Amino acid sequence: MKLILIRHGETEGNLNGIYQGIKDYPLSEEGKLQNLKLKSKLENINVDKVYYSTMERAKKTADAIFDFSSSAIYFEENLSFNEINFGLWDGKDYKYISKNYSEQFQSFIDDFKIFKFPEGESFKDFYNRVSEGIRKIIKVSKEEDNIAIVAHGGTIRVILCELLGFNYEGFYKFNISHGCYSLLTVCKDSAVLEFLNK
After folding, report:
1. Domain boundaries, position 135
2. Residues forming the annotated binding site?
3. Apex CA 16: angle with CA 12 and CA 19, to 5°?
4. Which residues carry out catalysis (predicted)?
5. Domain total of the chain
6. Which residues are catalytic?
């Protein structure tokens, strides 16, 4: 099975250094261009299933790349692949957070794995949510399927960590670029990373 992991195009929030979890910002002009380039990169790959997060930035990216009117592709909006809920930090930038939540921010820096964002989601809950989501999809998919997941940087990091055996510790070992895709070959309980950020 081939697993194509797609990060949405750049948004206005990304452009301005905003913590962007469940809060949505529109795609920037650069993000729209990235999606068009990505469509071109993927045009020779036959995709059987497309799963995308419920966030508008992921939906808009999926819509720009794939033909939603095609009966040959199975489409599913999937809550499991939403970005982490940053709670009160959502929609704020680094400077604001480090100044107004200094102690909590230091706790996050000290050990992100046990941190829960104020009035948001814990990293552990986020990791488990995404992991369960990808495991369910692998379970119901065929060996010959080409599956695309259109989601977020954090979501894709979790999928890579889970399938490649890095667990929580590997989360910040991957840099996931906007408007790019990464490819995994998945066979039963093992996975091989073919390439990152193409």
Report:
1. 2-195
2. 7-14, 57
3. 90
4. 8 (tele-phosphohistidine intermediate), 83 (proton donor/acceptor)
5. 1
6. 8, 83
